[in-house]
Amino acid sequence: MKILILGGDGYLGWPTAMHFSDRGDNVLIIDNFVKRRWEMEDGIEPFLPISTLHNRVNKWEELTGKKINFEIGDLQNHRFVYNTISNFLPDAIVHYGEQPSAPYSMQSRETAVYTQVNNVVGTMNIMFAIQKFCPQTNLIKLGTMGEYGTPDIDIEEGWLTVNHNGRSDKVMYPKKPNSFYHLSKVHDSHNLEFACRIWGLKVTDLNQGVVYGINTKQTNLDPVLRTSFHYDDVFGTVLNRFLVQAAVNMPLSIYGKGGQTRGFLNIRDTIACVELAVDNPGEAGEFRVLNQFTEQFSVMDLAEKVQKTGQRNNMKVDIKYLENPRIESEDHYYNAKHKKLEELGLKPNFLTDDLLDEMFVDILKNVERVNTKLFDPRIKWNQG
Predict the structure, then answer these.
(1) Is 144 considered catalytic here?
(2) What integer pLDDT is reported at residue 383 of this predicted model?
(3) Following DSSP, what letter does each residue of 204-271 receive, concatenated?
């Protein structure tokens, strides 16, 4: 297959590109390296150094004999998008190419506006290019479980049947996003559903939970092929941060009471889910939503797991509670459905003690690189 990976230089994009190349697909990456610039703006760098995309693709070809091509360009430039898609005519497009951080989007007016323009306009350019040049292309869009918020009813997979005044209809599940980033994803979902309904496109929206993990089969081949791993307050995710804090003998920083509950999945499962969506496309005109996570945990659940990981490795791990910089419910109902990917064949990698120990040992090998000033949150939701 011809597979276009948008945002292929990123934490998820690069391992995904290697995975599809490894299985024999013709892979083209698009990226403009802006994520690296955002990191520099906030004084952040990945836990381990990340090589340039040029070096990565060269090393990949050297080790495997397989080629990954790439184009450097911005998805907000519709001419670049049109030229690339009309020349490549992909069978599938995997869309990671957006600003992915809720804290970054809440940092200022400038970052909020940038996040929405970058994400929404980029996705619309892709949508229009598909409609114009390759309407049969299967678009796999990485969404987020954060679109739903924390409603006091069960979260269905994208759609909800509503009974009202004796009549019934199927509508998109109501959204209660919690940041300007999550709002941008809601706008994406509505635009893409409209394109499916009006133009007959076929789109799979993967509403992804919080991703954790360091390694995949391909990143383990050589240090040059590693992907970015963040533990900071802007681009890091909670489990990654807890493991790094434990490794440097600092207390785990819990925002508020720690009752916030979300869906989580391993980075290997992200790639497996994307592969299932590529290989099992929806129908023309279908806006298919798959909730992409494997387990639900509260922040406190994860802290206790990391405490036990430290104990197994002869380290004492403490917990500290911080005033929550976010505006969110800390004690809430949360029951999200996530059966469709398992029905397609997903075999989850659950968060076992062995997996936590593996991640922890990898981090311990490089603790001298940790910048402890990046743990505590610098961005507050109510700062305006």
Answers:
(1) yes
(2) 84
(3) EEEEE-EEE-S--TTGGG-GGG------STTT--HHHHHHHHHHTT--EEEETTS--EEEEEEHHHHH
Choice among 115, 144, 150, 270 that is catalytic: 144
3-state SS of 5-24 is EECCCCCCHHHHHHHHHHCC
Closest by alpha carbon to 140, among 282, 20, 262, 11? Answer: 282
- Residues of the chain below pLDDT 50: none
Pairing of strands 261-266, 210-212: parallel
Residues ≥6 apart with Cβ < 8 Å to 226: 48, 50, 51, 214, 215, 219
Greatest alpha-carbon pair distance for the chain in Å reads 65
- Please tell me the distance from the alpha carbon of residue 177 to that of residue 112, in angstroms, as a whole number: 14
| pLDDT tens readout for residues 106-124 | 999 999 999 999 999 999 9
Q: Which of 316, 322, 305 is nearest to 359 (CA)?
A: 305
Told to judge if 308 belongs to the known catalytic residues of this protein, a careful annotator would answer no
Catalytic-role residue among 185, 202, 305, 340 = 185
Domain CATH for 25: 3.40.50.720
Catalytic residue among 181, 212, 231, 334: 181
181: annotated active-site residue = yes
User: How many folded domains does the chain comprise?
Assistant: 1
Residue 159 is part of which domain span? 2-383
